[in-house]
Amino acid sequence: MAATGHPRGSTEHGGSVRRAPGLLGAPFAARTWKEFLHLLLDLPIAVACFSYVVVMISLGLGLAVTFLGLPVLAAAVAGARGWGALERGRAAALLDVRIARPAPLRPSRPGLMGWLGAVLKDGVGWRSVLYCVLLLPWSVFGFTVSLVLWACGWAMLAYPAYQWVFPTWVHQPGLQLYGDGPGGRPEVYLDSVPEIAGVCALGVVLFFGTPWLIHGLTCVNRALVGSLLSPSSLSERVRELEDDRGTVVDTAAADLRRIERDLHDGAQARLVALAMDLGLAKEKLTEDPETAAQMVDAAHGEVKLALQELRDLARGIHPAILTDRGLDAALSSVATRCTAPGGVRVTVDLPTRPDPSIEGIAYFTVSELLTNTSKHAHAHTATVDLWRSHDRLMLQIRDDGTGGATETPGGGLAGLADRIRAVDGVFMIHSPHGGPTTITVELPWHTRTES
Questions:
Q1: Is the model more confident about 124 or about 314?
Q2: Are 226 and 88 in contact (CB under 8 A)?
Q3: According to the model, what pLDDT value does residue 312 have?
Q4: Which domain range does residue 241 map to?
Q5: What pLDDT does residue 233 have?
Q6: More confidently predicted of 319 and 239
Q7: Distance between CA 48 and CA 29 in Å, rounded?
Q8: Cα gap 71→56, rounded to integer Å
């Protein structure tokens, strides 16, 4: 698509934003009732998990002088981990809090002792134990405050509607506020119009204010779940690095298989045929010089084709122009091979060169995306923009093709996105059906090992 200005500083946001209910709508909002239900469920769940943890930890510590203490302690920690999984699910369903699931336990050695060691050293498990202990006192407070204020708000707001019940059926003028009866303090009833109006006004305040108090109480629940039941940043980074390592290994293995296949099916086969042709030409050199000359001439053409295939293969591994002249020249060379009728405009605004590994990723990203543009997008024109933003290399490719590009699992774009994310990059696609397609890539300016 035609450029409408340099893309630096422009961002696109997708998705919907969840809005908080207004003051008048808060008592009737689904969020309020889900949070209230969460507070009501807190108490019975807290009693159960607190009892389990305290009993199991106490039993394990009491049996610590024997071997049975370790399995009991491990069972307590593992059970607390299970309670944590339940609480993460409850928070997701009622509080709209999505907490990443911690990595599964990975014993360093097989057998019972390996499992015991992994459980007893599990930080998530011990933080789940702490959560089970802290939840009980907080659940008592949250349960009591929310239930009492919510019930009082509804009852006081509706008091004018049922005040007539007291003189009709209870034989008293209204709801008794206090009083000890004959001989004691005088009895005071809420029966006059000003008193009924005051009760109703206070009910209005509680009716519309309690939902926000409930929301504040559940914010503490969100903080407890987020801080104690989520995986630590270190463990998440370790798991991310393990996933990235697997992606890099798979990508390297696929590249090696591709290179081997290209050599075997391309240049190697052509050179074998060339050797056979030259052998035949050598035999005919004395008997039929004219035929031998024709065979040598054909072999010369085969040599040129083999050299071209080897150049293409070397360019696919790492182009010399990228090493010698940088991204500007290398991407301009890639753009000339794109078959878009209107051509490709390349704009590179880089004050210096990024790390060589980042340059290579940016080069192959553009190369593969322009190949997709040529084969699938049916685009007339395309643009490639590169610029630096702080410590990030920004890359944006746009075309005016048919659109509909998605990260299909196992597809080319998904593999490309995995390679980019393996170096802490960002890969975003905006490609509605009918076009245009905009793909934005962020890469670190320096790799972690070189920064």
A1: 124
A2: no
A3: 59
A4: 234-317
A5: 60
A6: 319
A7: 30
A8: 10
Q: Which of 221, 228, 190 is nearest to 85 (CA)?
A: 228
Q: Does residue 219 sit in the same domain as residue 240? A: no
How many CB atoms within 10 Å of residue 219? 12
Residues 429 and 352 in one domain: yes
Are 344 and 411 found together in one domain?
Answer: yes
State the sign of the Cα–Cα–Cα–Cα dihedral 153, 157, 158, 160: positive
Report whether 211 contacts 27 (CB < 8 A): yes
- CA distances to 163, 196, 360 from 149, in Å: 20, 18, 63
Share in percent of the chain as helix, strand, coil (round to 5): 65, 10, 30
User: What DSSP designation does 266 have?
Assistant: I
The Cα 87–Cα 138 span in angstroms is 15
* Average of per-residue pLDDT across 216-230: 91
Instruction: Tell whether pTM > 0.85.
Output: no
238 and 377 assigned to the same domain: no
Residues 197 and 255 in one domain: no
Question: Token pair for residue 95?
Answer: 């509080």
Cis status, amide bond into 21, omega within 30 of 0: no
- Helical (H) or strand (E) element with 177: strand 175-178
Query: Looking up tokens 């629940």, which residue turns up?
Result: 221
Q: Give the CATH number of the domain where residue 402 resides.
A: 3.30.565.10
> Please, what sign has the CA dihedral across residues 234, 237, 239, 245?
negative
3 state DSSP class of 223: helix
Give me the DSSP letters along 50-117.
Answer: HHHHHHHHHHHHHTTTSTTHHHHHHHHHHHHHHHHHHHHHHHHHHS----PPPPPP--SSSSHHHHHH
CA distance 257 to 261: 6
- The amino acid at 363: Y
**Residues across the chain:** 451
Q: How far is CA 310 from CA 95, 177, 297, 427, in A?
A: 59, 96, 20, 31
d(CA 216, CA 407): 39
